[in-house]
């Protein structure tokens, strides 16, 4: 089975180690990880450079996966990526990752749904159309590994945008 190309959106500073574990699942083809130094260097080059990096990395992806940690909602680049994905007609889904154990910090509190914060002119929120999955707290990694391909397929076949 061919791997589906995806783009991961997440709060880099808070969740990079949790996200790396999800990248290692291997059932999908995700964008290559950026190191903390690369991300900080990119951010210092200015807003337009970051937007261009996002555009290039999202270009050929079929699905955008927002990995939701304790502080993901309200992050400006995550919001930008969600809006861009929606406007580009990409499939989108969210996965809560607070129960993935970080080697440094363990698990964390469940964050707010970032799709709740983005509203259309008619008052509806993107969360009215985009699914978010909250994996089993006892084995979050296993639940994600077992179900991610199906979640992606569902998002692709049920795009509302």
UniProtKB/TrEMBL annotation:
Domain of life: Bacteria
Residue span, Thoeris protein ThsB TIR-like domain: 7-99
Protein name (database record): Thoeris protein ThsB TIR-like domain-containing protein
Source organism: Shewanella pealeana (strain ATCC 700345 / ANG-SQ1)
């Amino acid at each position: 089975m061919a791997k589906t190309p995806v783009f991961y959106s997440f709060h880099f500073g808070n969740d990079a180690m949790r996200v790396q574990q999800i990248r290692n699942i291997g059932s999908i083809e995700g964008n290559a990880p950026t190191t903390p130094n690369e991300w900080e260097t990119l951010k210092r080059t200015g807003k337009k450079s970051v937007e261009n990096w996002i555009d290039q990395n999202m270009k050929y992806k079929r699905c955008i996966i927002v990995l939701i940690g304790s502080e993901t909602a309200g992050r400006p680049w995550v919001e930008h990526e969600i809006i861009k994905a929606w406007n580009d007609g990409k499939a989108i889904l969210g996965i809560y990752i607070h129960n993935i154990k970080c080697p440094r910090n363990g698990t964390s509190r469940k964050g707010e749904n970032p799709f709740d914060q983005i509203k259309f002119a008619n008052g509806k929120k993107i969360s009215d159309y985009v699914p978010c999955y909250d994996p089993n707290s006892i084995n979050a990694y296993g639940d994600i590994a077992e179900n991610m391909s199906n979640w992606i397929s569902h998002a692709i076949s049920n795009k509302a945008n």
